[in-house]
Amino acid sequence: MSNNTELKEALNIIDKELKNKGLSRREALKLAGIGSASFLMGSSELEAATVANASDVKAKILIIGGGLAGIATAARLSSSLSNPDITVIEPNPKSVSYQPGNTLIAAGIYTKDDVMYDTKDFVPNGVTVIKDRAVEFDPENNKVKTENGETLDYDYMVIAAGLKLDFGKIQGLEEIGELTTLGDSSKLISKLKDSGVCSIYSTDGAVATWENMQKLVQDAKAGKKVNAVFTHPNTPIKCGGAPKKIMYLTNSRLEEAGARQNAELTFYPNGGNMFGVKEYHEAILKQFEVRDFKWHYNHNLVGVDLEKKIATFDNFWDEKGEYDADLGEYDIVTKHKDVEVEYDFLHITPPMKAPDEIGKSAIGSGKGWVPVNKETLQHIKYKNIFSLGDIAAVPMGKTGGSVRKQYKVLVDNLISAMEGKELKAKYEGYTVCPLITDIGKVMLAEFDWSKKPTPSFPLDPTVERYVWWLLKVYMLKPMTQYGLLAGRA
């Protein structure tokens, strides 16, 4: 099926679904310019067109983090309360930039300018932003202390601070330390310069990835046999599909240059499958086989020798140990061995963690993330604290698509808590991952707690499609910019 035919058929399906909602496609597009994308992203109602009845309840609300999750939450709260008192603590003036575009920067499709926004342009009326960082939490007394020494009190607090990229956990990269995607990446860029090692999880790193990718392609085109290695760590990460997306895009650029035969592309995931949903796992395996990708499960990157261009992985597996007569079963022993892999191009997905000032505080947990009820997003211990996005201890919840569902649930429940009512809104685990499989193709992986595909339209969700490429490249950014950050999408 040609791209044009597929697009036409997909739009016919979209039109049918819109008609069921009493709308034309033109009318849908008028919904803040993002209506059609809203429907494509799993919307079951006209969320972009509706505004919650404003509540007269009053309380001082403090939001930690002014990224996508924090500003979207502030915007929806602002329009849902008749007398909002909302303060956001955020140190980075570029905190709401479009991070999902990093993969496209790394493949030369976007530039950095395409994803950078000024946070001030998206702050809702009546919301105060303090350019600072929260470093101490006293939830027993409803107080937060900032890096600049200011103490703030609150009635309710929302934790949307994102996570840290822990490059320093990898031997050989200790001096890079911990980074944020949009923070100062000078140590990363300096350390990895001319090494063939890169990472799209920093926006500046994504720019450097494109430079490294072009060199890899040039070498392969010149006849050199090159080895490209892609990693996935042993921690939860944001955008779990990204380590594979950059591999697919590298393949596309090599194919485009007629140099694919000179390159070996290998994926080293820490886990034992390609995706947590069986149907998508199986689809990805078939895609890997067609593209002649290699892969090795249960490999966690633990070291990099930048001079020798060798990556060291901890390869682990379980073996049957001694027999336990009391339990009537054998012990299971995990074995480890170091595996050294030579590379010309190495893409690192770093270990990730909550910032220590949050993860190791009274509002954190033993695993570092903010512990919340996965459905209500209310803190397990402190009932006037809520959390969402990358930092929340919610399974399968570290994508922008997850935030799009989470922040509406959180706002509804936060207002219910303020009004002394039962928390009835439930996050059902909806997550979406537009998995780029080629330049011009995307598999739109949608799923929820059931770990089953939950497609928004009657199209096989395991098929790579041109229409989802259009969604990813052209529609999701304006939907985020004009819908989600306005608290409407």
TrEMBL record:
<dbReference type="GO" id="GO:0070221">
    <property type="term" value="P:sulfide oxidation, using sulfide:quinone oxidoreductase"/>
</dbReference>
<dbReference type="GO" id="GO:0071949">
    <property type="term" value="F:FAD binding"/>
</dbReference>
<dbReference type="InterPro" id="IPR015904">
    <property type="entry name" value="Sulphide_quinone_reductase"/>
</dbReference>
<dbReference type="GO" id="GO:0070224">
    <property type="term" value="F:sulfide:quinone oxidoreductase activity"/>
</dbReference>
<feature type="domain" description="FAD/NAD(P)-binding">
    <location>
        <begin position="60"/>
        <end position="194"/>
    </location>
</feature>
<dbReference type="InterPro" id="IPR036188">
    <property type="entry name" value="FAD/NAD-bd_sf"/>
</dbReference>
<dbReference type="Pfam" id="PF07992">
    <property type="entry name" value="Pyr_redox_2"/>
</dbReference>
<dbReference type="InterPro" id="IPR023753">
    <property type="entry name" value="FAD/NAD-binding_dom"/>
</dbReference>
<dbReference type="InterPro" id="IPR006311">
    <property type="entry name" value="TAT_signal"/>
</dbReference>
<protein>
    <submittedName>
        <fullName>NADH dehydrogenase</fullName>
    </submittedName>
</protein>
